[in-house]
Amino acid sequence: MTRTLTTLALAIACSAAQAFSFSDLTFWTGTGANRAALVIDWNDGAEPKSLAWGFRWDGVATGEDMFRAVVTSDPLLFSKALSFSFGIAVNGIGYDTDGDGLPLSDGTAWPPNGLLFPGSPSDGATALDAGDRYVEGWNTGFWGYWLASGSTLGTWSEAQVGLSGRQLVDGSWDGLSFAQGFVGSAPDDPVAAPEPATLLALLAVPVLLRRRRRR
Fold first, then answer.
1. 62-78, pLDDT tens digit by residue?
2. What is the pLDDT of residue 10?
3. Disulfide engineering: 78 pairs with which of 90, 114, 155, 168, CB 3.0-4.6 Å?
4. Sign of the dihedral defined by the CA atoms of residues 28, 29, 35, 40, in that order
5. How far is CA 89 from CA 16, 46, 67, 82, 138, in A?
6. Pair 43, 177: CB distance under 8 Å
7. Which domain holds residue 63?
8. What is the pLDDT of residue 203?
9. Domain-embedded: residue 102
10. 150 in the Ramachandran plot: left (φ > 0), alpha (ψ -120 to 50) or beta?
């Protein structure tokens, strides 16, 4: 039941139009006049292939600012990132599809905001809950960084800088796409990540049904 409801929430968030645009986004974080979007593609064979979030800001913001804001705002999104003198690099990204946490095979203890900075990179950890999504890589693959522009998602191009060196532009798109075996590919057409209130309300339905059956 929970899996079905999660899938339903993602289907609700999906745009009926073929061209994905800012108007299709349902999960927004940040405030300000400028808008950008973050697309994450796990390339793990699961559906939907990629999810998208929106970010608002004023003044100057970087790709790192958007990434941090999205991960720490969405209770279903998790990430391992590494901190260097030049900024951060993504090691792993996960999505808790059933709302009960994201346990990993390596015993990772996630902080409350979902963004973990381990002391060293890791490879090969997997999600323990069937259906949850998690992909990491450092020596076996990497999270490629891609850019696009326009209120409607256009053609992706590989970024020439990292998240921390990327200055966001109003109306731009940033994509993270996992390159297994270091074979990179642009993010697939995304589905809008569901707003937490919508998804958590749907996830609560099985609990309510169980309570009614006990009466």
1. 999 999 999 999 999 99
2. 54
3. 114
4. negative
5. 34, 24, 11, 5, 10
6. yes
7. 2-208
8. 56
9. yes
10. left
Q: Which sign does the torsion angle of CA 124, 129, 131, 133 carry? A: negative
Within a domain: residue 66?
yes
pLDDT, tens digit, 9 for 90 and up, residues 201-210: 655 544 433 3
| Tally of domains in the chain | 1
The number of beta carbons lying within 10 Å of the beta carbon of residue 66 is 25
> Is the model's pLDDT at 1 over the cut of 60?
no
In a domain, 189, yes or no: yes
pTM for the predicted model, two decimal places: 0.86
Q: What DSSP designation does 104 have?
A: B
Closest residue by Cα to residue 168 from 23, 31, 27, 38? 38
pLDDT band at 151 (very low <50, low <70, confident <90, very high): confident
Q: Is the peptide bond before 48 cis (omega within 30 degrees of 0)?
A: yes
pLDDT digits (tens, 9 = 90+) for 152-184: 998 999 999 999 999 999 999 999 999 999 999
Our CA angle for 65, 20, 133, nearest 5°, is 60
Position 194, amino acid: P
User: In which region does residue 205 sit, left (phi positive, over 0), alpha (psi from -120 to 50) or beta (all else)?
Assistant: alpha
Q: Which residue has the higher pLDDT, 154 or 92?
A: 92
In a domain, 215, yes or no: no
- Tokens standing for residue 167: 């200055």
